[in-house]
Write a structure and sequence with these properties.
alpha+beta; GTP Cyclohydrolase I, domain 2; 4-stranded antiparallel beta sheet
């Protein structure tokens, strides 16, 4: 079993409860890691024997493009979409962070971390 990580994926998206967030958008960071069996790929050196992180990134990108009010909703959609598309993934965790959230003070980010498993 191996862990594959996609860290610090950056997106500009329209997620948030405030109407301005839905119109103007803001910056988000997504971190993800998943566990999968890479034994065949370790020997074969063939992308078909593992989970392509390029393909996983595209799923995340597609889900981030769909507006949501809550980070929890975005994170669950990402988990569900990735698990549905990649049967080789056994467990995964995704962390969605809204950078510089409009909370009336200085704050780097607010994050939600969700997990899924088979």
């Amino acid at each position: 079993m191996a862990r594959i990580e996609l860290t610090n994926m950056q997106f500009y998206a329209n997620h948030g409860c405030f109407s301005q967030e839905q119109v103007i958008g803001t910056h988000f960071r997504v971190d993800m890691w998943f566990d999968t069996d890479t034994c065949r790929a370790e020997v074969s050196d063939n992308i078909d024997d593992t989970v392509s992180y390029l393909d996983v990134y595209q799923v995340v990108k597609n889900e981030m493009a769909k507006p949501s009010h809550l980070l929890e909703h975005v994170g669950r959609r990402i988990c569900d979409a990735v698990m549905a598309q990649f049967a080789r993934i056994k467990t995964m965790t995704v962390k969605v962070s809204k950078l510089n959230p409009p909370l009336g003070g200085k704050l780097d980010a607010v994050s939600v971390e969700l997990s899924a498993c088979r």
